[in-house]
């Protein structure tokens, strides 16, 4: 935590860190997640001296988002996976297609 941070932010940091560790995140990664989240909240509320553009423009705070962007849902197939599927279906021109084109050609 940055020097001079409030008791509330210190508690928030510990809460986020412990939650991440309970979900199986390593100690270092949990600390990083907690620090980034708290620093973003500090920036949004005007407590920090500097703030990134994304911290200020993001319509939802991290706590409001509730893990929306945590990438825990089903992930889309990689370009290589799509290419292999196109190869099995014998789609012509697949070697020149990008990921989006492969997805459309496969009807996904």
Topology (SSEs and partners):
Blueprint: H1 7-22, H2 27-44, H3 53-57, H4 62-65, H5 79-88, H6 99-105
Helix pairs in contact: 1-2, 5-6
Structure description:
By secondary structure, the chain is mainly α. The protein has two domains: 7-65; 76-108, no CATH class. It is built from six helices and no strands. The chain has helices at 7-22, 27-44, 53-57, 62-65, 79-88, 99-105. Helix 1 (7-22) runs antiparallel to helix 2 and helix 5 packs parallel to helix 6. The longest helix is centred in the N-terminal third of the chain and has 18 residues, at 27-44.
Task: Kindly give the count of domains.
Answer: 2
* Rg on CA atoms, Å: 21 Å
State the share of residues found in helices, binned by percent.
Answer: 55-70%
- Overall pLDDT score: 83
Low-confidence stretches: none
Terminal residue distance? 45 Å
Structural class: mainly alpha
Number of separate strands: 0
How much of the sequence is in beta strands? under 5%
SSE pattern: HHHHHH
Task: Quickly count the helices.
Answer: 6
- The coarse silhouette is elongated
Largest sheet: none
Q: Which oligomeric form is depicted? A: single chain
Keywords, separated by commas or semicolons:
mainly alpha; single chain; 108 residues
Q: Brief description of this entry?
A:
With 108 residues, the protein is mostly helical.
